[in-house]
Amino acid sequence: MTNDTGGDVRLSGISKTYGSFTAVHPLDLTVPQGSFFALLGASGCGKTTTLRMIAGLEEPTSGTVALGDQDVTNLPPYKRPVNTVFQSYALFPHLDIFENVAFGLRRRGVKSVKKQVEEMLELVQLGEQARKKPHQLSGGQQQRVAVARALINHPKVLLLDEPLGALDLKLRRQMQLELKRIQTEVGITFIHVTHDQEEAMTMADTVAVMNSGRVEQLGSPADLYENPNTTFVANFLGTSNLIEAEVDTTSGDEIVLRAGGGKLSLPAARCSAPTTTGGKVLVGIRPEKISLTHADDAGSIPEGRNRITGTIADTSFIGVSTQYVIDSPVCPEFEVYAQNIDRDARLVPGTEVVLHWSPAHTFGLDATQSIV
Ligand code: ATP
């Protein structure tokens, strides 16, 4: 839609304090031009404050905000080539959809707005609704009007602050795909704030996971999920089973650890903890990567897999998979999601089982971090 897409958004040492409270610690972050970028974190972690500093709605305590070659730190919001979509939509109730979208153009004194507004309404698939008032539209449609209105002046960056927070789950999922389609079509940078990990993973090319005013880890959704670097990320994005272990040996690209009298191994590249012999490591494994075998059949488990023993404490059928909670000496309440298996009548609470998984799916975390 626009060829001049502005360049990367670069935050350099940007921070925000309120009195003695630091909402955002000095932060360096580059958002690549044309990417769909998510700031993800729990309530109060500083993601909205970061977004507002990019928008110019909040003055940073230190640091700079640049867009391509332009330092915009001291520019007021209306002079920045960015626009923001808020959760509240903030549509004008007395204006119809066409006029809501046309508003930004008319304010700039643009005389012939028809073609541009129609194009924008097509983009968000609301061409048929132009003459309705906001209250005659569904929540998802109103949200799309808000997006169209924010895009009409061709910002180089669109900031989205929990834009789907007011929608029910089904609509939210539809809108996630819709926003992704719109972003791909317009090709500008979208920076999206959300506390919903599934939302961030579905839409974003790159996710910055924030915790207590800091970016804890930055990466693609798959990378963050497969290779979390901290216990916070391991547990904020999905569920992780964490086993306290001690480094036994390291050889080449393999680390062998002792845990509860047995041994576990993992690729060195997947361990973010120091690996000196005797050092403490938290060994992580996602619930869906684990297989369960009745203890009587343990001989059938292939060589080379990580394995621990346990007792089934609880099972629940959750549609696509069965969830098992397993008590194990190395990890109380070990969670296993087993998919596409015949529900084995023998895997009932009280059964002794062996949990086993590939070392390649195992990750190692610094055990000196607190488990969140
Ligand atoms: P939420 O999803 O709940 O909006 P958030 O991650 O976006 O959370 P922020 O809104 O950025 O968090 O707030 C970060 C911290 O800064 C919070 O502890 C908040 O209470 C505090 N804070 C935000 N604005 C102010 C302000 N104007 N004065 C004092 N403290 C503030």
From TrEMBL:
Coiled-coil ranges from the UniProt annotation: none
Catalytic activity: ATP + H2O + polyamine-[polyamine-binding protein]Side 1 = ADP + phosphate + polyamineSide 2 + [polyamine-binding protein]Side 1
Keyword Transmembrane set for record: no
Enzyme class: translocase
UniProt-recorded name of the protein: Spermidine/putrescine import ATP-binding protein PotA
Residue stretches making up the ABC transporter domain: 9-237
A GO MF label: ATP binding
Keyword Nucleotide-binding listed: yes
Keywords (A to Z) from UniProt: ATP-binding, Cell membrane, Membrane, Nucleotide-binding, Translocase, Transport
One Pfam family recorded for the sequence: TOBE_2
EC number per UniProt: 7.6.2.11
Cross-referenced PROSITE patterns: ABC_TRANSPORTER_1, ABC_TRANSPORTER_2
Protein purpose: Part of the ABC transporter complex PotABCD involved in spermidine/putrescine import. Responsible for energy coupling to the transport system.
Top-level taxonomy: Bacteria, Bacillati, Actinomycetota, Actinomycetes, Kitasatosporales
NCBIfam families, A to Z: potA
Record-linked InterPro entries: AAA+_ATPase, ABC_SmlMolc_Importer, ABC_transporter-like_ATP-bd, ABC_transporter-like_CS, Mo/tungstate-bd_C_term_dom, P-loop_NTPase, PotA-like, PotA_ATP-bd
Family indicated by similarity: Belongs to the ABC transporter superfamily. Spermidine/putrescine importer (TC 3.A.1.11.1) family.
